[in-house]
């Protein structure tokens, strides 16, 4: 099949590359000429493990190409995917659908023959209906169906998530569109991936409900971690104890500085807004949004406390800047608020991240950017671990201690063991755990 993927950002690029891996002919379209120029030169505009090789292989095979104009690609397409950004509005937190609706108008002018128009962008319930209305209003004779096909890609694991997903959700009332989507996803039928056909509004709701539930799990264990700290309990063992319950499961029960990224913050907020506007507020989701924002704001205070109540004039080393490992995404990353809070207290920041440095430099001022872990900790009066990159999991603690001015570590991801850190001579602070073994 011929696919036009409108939007060559994270979702569009990964989805387009993976569909081409299935054997479909894919054109990824983006109006950002610099981005398309990079892609045509073989340079990845984002970091995602395995993506560069996947793109290169399918470009070489002639199944994947890139363009700035959508006209020709849409005219020859069996399916047109809308994969443009839907950022949270600065005014009220609603999903900004301006890009989606603008693209719908452009698609309307280019349709030629039966086409499935697929919303892959994360959009509120009812967006598909509006996309259909826009296209029909501009091209009354067009032969098309609008389908909702939400993405469930985890940054850092996106290719595996697409090629071996837990499920595929397809929202449409048209049997003709169902058959087209079955053909698109045929390789997944062969490996017996669950493919759920629903109505369009249901598919749109599934995406938001999934992200809100995962964000709630994270926020729940973070609040339990705070309670553990004042009751001498260990959140690591609590998470294991409840995660072994098959009804709960162990995933997303890792206490830390709060969730960030491109999805959870904006999607929980957008869902809460949708519910409020519909007259059915979601109190749990509203609380999750509030608690997570407050938590990220308090993380700098933990570091200040570990430094004796003041960081004025002190050098603080920060390891990890991105919101999670295996990505260069800095959107809503906890590190942003942490560094800003420390700087407001007079701290001097030295920082390192394996992939997020370029993105971070555009968002943070007054930071000394370092070459590696050991460069970062040199002369520091405290070290904080913010993102759990693998290379931070087995530090040479003796070397780290020798390079630091004072051996203070604030581990916001619970990477290390409190007893082992005490034995290594560190004043060690973590999340939801006692500083040393106790009963």
Structure in words:
- This protein has 2 domains: 2-198, 3-Layer(aba) Sandwich (Rossmann fold); 233-429, Rossmann fold, CATH 3.40.50.720.
- It is globular.
- The strands form 3 sheets. A 6-stranded parallel β-sheet has the order 3-2-1-4-5-6, with helices on both faces. Strands 11-10-9-12-13-14 form a 6-stranded parallel β-sheet. A two-stranded parallel ribbon has the order 7-8.
- With 439 residues, the chain is α/β, with parallel strands linked by helices.
- Helix 1 (10-21) crosses helix 3 (51-60).
- The chain has helices at 10-21, 33-40, 51-60, 71-75, 98-110, 127-138, 158-163, 175-184, 186-190, 200-229, 235-243, 264-277, 283-306, 334-344, 357-361, 373-377, 397-403, 418-423, and strands spanning 2-6, 25-29, 64-67, 79-82, 115-119, 144-148, 168-171, 195-198, 315-319, 348-352, 367-369, 382-385, 408-411, 427-429.
- It is 44% helix and 14% strand.
- The chain is built from 18 helices and 14 strands.
């Amino acid at each position: 099949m011929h696919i036009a993927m409108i939007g060559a950002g994270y979702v569009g690029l990964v989805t387009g590359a993976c569909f081409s891996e299935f054997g479909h002919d894919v054109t990824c379209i983006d109006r950002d000429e610099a981005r398309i120029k990079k892609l045509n030169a073989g340079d990845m505009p984002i970091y995602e493990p395995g993506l560069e090789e996947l793109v290169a292989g399918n470009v070489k095979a002639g199944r994947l190409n890139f363009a700035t104009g959508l006209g020709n690609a849409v005219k020859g397409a069996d399916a047109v995917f809308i994969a443009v950004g839907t950022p949270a509005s600065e005014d009220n937190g609603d999903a900004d659908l301006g890009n989606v609706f603008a693209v719908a108008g452009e698609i309307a002018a280019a349709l030629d023959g039966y086409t499935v128009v697929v919303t892959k962008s994360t959009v509120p319930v009812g967006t598909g209906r509006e996309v259909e209305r826009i296209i029909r209003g501009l091209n009354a004779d067009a032969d098309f169906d609008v389908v909702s096909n939400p993405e469930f890609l985890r940054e850092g694991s996106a290719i595996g998530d697409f090629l071996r997903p837990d499920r595929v959700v397809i929202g449409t009332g048209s049997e003709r569109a169902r058959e087209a989507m079955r053909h698109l996803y045929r390789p997944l039928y062969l490996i017996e991936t669950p493919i759920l056909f629903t109505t369009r509004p249901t598919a749109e709701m599934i995406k938001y409900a999934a992200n809100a539930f995962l964000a709630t799990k994270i926020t729940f264990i973070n609040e339990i971690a705070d309670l553990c700290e004042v009751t001498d309990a260990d959140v690591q063992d609590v998470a294991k104890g409840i995660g072994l319950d098959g009804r709960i499961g162990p995933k997303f029960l890792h206490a830390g500085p709060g969730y960030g990224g491109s999805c959870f913050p904006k999607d929980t907020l957008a869902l809460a807004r949708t519910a409020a506007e519909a007259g059915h507020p979601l109190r749990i989701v509203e609380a999750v949004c509030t608690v997570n924002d407050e938590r990220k704001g308090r993380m700098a205070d933990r570091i200040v406390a570990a430094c004796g109540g003041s960081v004025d004039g002190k050098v603080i080393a920060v390891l990890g800047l991105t919101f999670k490992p295996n990505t260069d995404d800095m959107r809503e990353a906890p590190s942003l608020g942490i560094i800003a809070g420390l700087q407001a207290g007079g701290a001097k920041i030295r920082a390192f991240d394996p992939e997020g440095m370029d993105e971070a430099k555009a968002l943070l001022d007054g930071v000394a950017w370092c070459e590696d872990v050991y460069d970062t900790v040199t002369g520091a009066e405290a070290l904080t671990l913010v993102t759990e990159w693998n290379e931070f999991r087995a530090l040479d603690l003796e070397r780290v201690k020798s390079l630091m001015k004072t051996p203070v570590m604030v581990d916001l991801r619970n990477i290390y063991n409190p007893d082992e850190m005490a034995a290594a001579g560190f004043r060690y602070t973590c999340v939801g755990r006692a500083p040393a073994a106790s009963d």
